[in-house]
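User: I'm putting together a teaching handout on how multi-component assemblies are represented. Below are the sequence lines for each component of a complex, exactly as they appear in our records. Could you produce the 3D structure of the whole assembly as structure tokens, so the students can see both representations side by side? Please keep the chain order the same as the input.
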Amino acid sequence: MSRKLVTLDDFTIDQTRQFPKATGQLSSLLRDIGLACKIINKQVNKAGLVDIIGQFGATNIQGEEQMKLDVYADETLINVLKRSEDCAGIASEENDDFVAFDDEYSVNSKYVVLFDPLDGSSNIDVNAPIGTIFAIYKRVTPVGQAVTAEDFLQEGSRLMAAGYVIYGSSTMMVYATRLGVNGFTLEPSIGEFCLSHPNMQVKENGKIYSLNQGNTCKFEAATTQFLDYCMEDNKDEGRPYSHRYIGSMVADLHRTLIKGGIFLYPADKKNANGKLRLLYECNPMAFIIEAAGGMASTGKERVLDVTPTELHQRVPIYIGSKNMVQKAISYIS
Ligand code: AHG
Ligand code: MN
Ligand code: MN
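Assistant: Of course. Below is the structure of the complete assembly, with chains in the same order as your input.
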């Protein structure tokens, strides 16, 4: 059966037409992010062939070792977005501070972009899936001047769009607006992201729990009790659940979006805020999962309601199928 090919561009332009006042800037910004990710994808595919894997030697603001591909992905996104007329500035997991673009086009742009250029970078050496996560906000300061920290420290509930690209057995972009979540697979022969997963929805119930269970010795009692519940033998309720953990948030949440389940990176005895970053990882993923009918919580509040106070802030996260997230939270509170 033949079907008309819908590219990412066709799709975002169609969506824009639903809003008569839309200027098309958001679609062209998504096209630019798509372009940057296609360039990153090329390099990711070559990781086993050229001398690009391995530690770069520097450490990022979080005190973690950067891999070469992290730096490459970061620079690619910055360069593409800097040249774009639709981005006023960026903030990235790999940089200490945000970057305000000060050329005459950028200062007049409405949008800022926050990203984790390469997520799951410890998976590069073992050829497992990695990704790029992005978040798009409308600036709050007036156009015509350089953006400030205020434009980046916005609550996730104010997101205009968010998405990720997964560099896996195929390369996909999944992106969400308030209209829903759609997935596009990169067709390498034409170099276009093509609609392959329209209107993605997260199941209300799942059978998979996903976390780094090796941290059990550090977990609070509530987390351990929730894990016991997941592992308990209860055929009527479909337990024990299966445990799956790739160690790359993009890959673990892509599975959660498609198959249902819960992903958690909780607070523990050593890390009161868990590990994952609010602005570059948790907010965009929470926006996507909520737009697909799922739920994302810090254990205390909706992730999207957290007021950010600093760019590299971390929060605990429980995200995925609504009923599973609610169950996990019932142990915590
Ligand atoms: P990054 O590669 O951007 O630093 O992110 C890694 C994150 C996330 O992708 C993943 O869910 C988590 O770290 C894995 O952490 P552990 O190794 O502690 O399980
Ligand atoms: Mn990450
Ligand atoms: Mn990263």
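A couple of points students might notice: The chain has two domains: 8-197, 208-332. The chain has eight helices and 15 strands.
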